Each structure stands twice: as structure tokens, then as C-alpha cells.
Amino acid sequence: MTSYRTLTQAEISALETLGNTAEAWSTIRVTEDFQPHQLFQNHFEGVVEIGSGAHVIRSRVHNYRIGAGSLVEGVTALECRRRSSFGN
């Protein structure tokens, strides 16, 4: 099972410099190997988990787990309200 952690203050500062915002940074969780450049110009709401090597670009993400190696780009609203699993 993948282990997630909260962001450090340095990571939050770097993410904000890259144009990211969050309703509450404390609810964003990442894997140990996370690098801020994986996220660019996004808005995060609720609990969001970002897997190893996943990239999110110009999207709005709400209550979502983004799996390892995923690419999410230009998504207006990516949201889950109940437990689900799907991919493309």
C-alpha cells in the first residue's frame, strides 16, 4: 500500500510559485518522492492524494486520489464524492 504524507512548508511555497492554490494545503498528501514541479497551475479542494511520478497541469481537483505515473491536464473539475475506481 502506498504511503502518503503532508506537504512541507518549502513544498507549499514552491507550489504557490508554480501557480497552484489549495482550499487547505493540510489536506493535500503526496508520496515520499514528490517534487513540486509535478504540479502546475492547479486548484485543489478537499483531500487529494498524489501518487509517485503523477503530474497535474492546469486542473481543478476535489477529493481525489491520482495514481502513480498519471497525467491530468486541462481538467475543469475532477471530483469523487464516493469511493470509486476508474481510469483511462
Describe the structure in your own words:
The chain is mainly beta and 88 residues long. Helices cover 10% and strands 36% of the residues. The strands form two sheets. Strands 1, 2, 3, 5, 7 and 9 form a six-stranded mixed sheet that branches. The mean pLDDT is 91.
Secondary-structure blueprint:
Layout: E1 5-6, H1 9-17, E2 21-22, E3 28-30, E4 39-40, E5 43-50, E6 55-57, E7 60-66, E8 71-73, E9 78-79
Parallel strand pairs: 2-5, 3-5, 4-6, 5-7, 6-8, 7-9
Antiparallel strand pairs: 1-3
Which range best describes the helical content: under 10%, 10-25%, 25-40%, 40-55%, 55-70% or over 70%?
A: 10-25%
Cα Rg = 12 Å
Task: Tally the beta strands.
Answer: 9
The geometry reads as globular
Average predicted local confidence, pLDDT: 91
Largest sheet entry: 6 strands, mixed
Order of helices and strands: EHEEEEEEEE
Unreliable parts: none
Structural class: mainly beta
Number of helices: 1
Can you tag this structure with a few keywords?
about 90 residues, mainly beta, 3-stranded parallel β-sheet, 9 strands
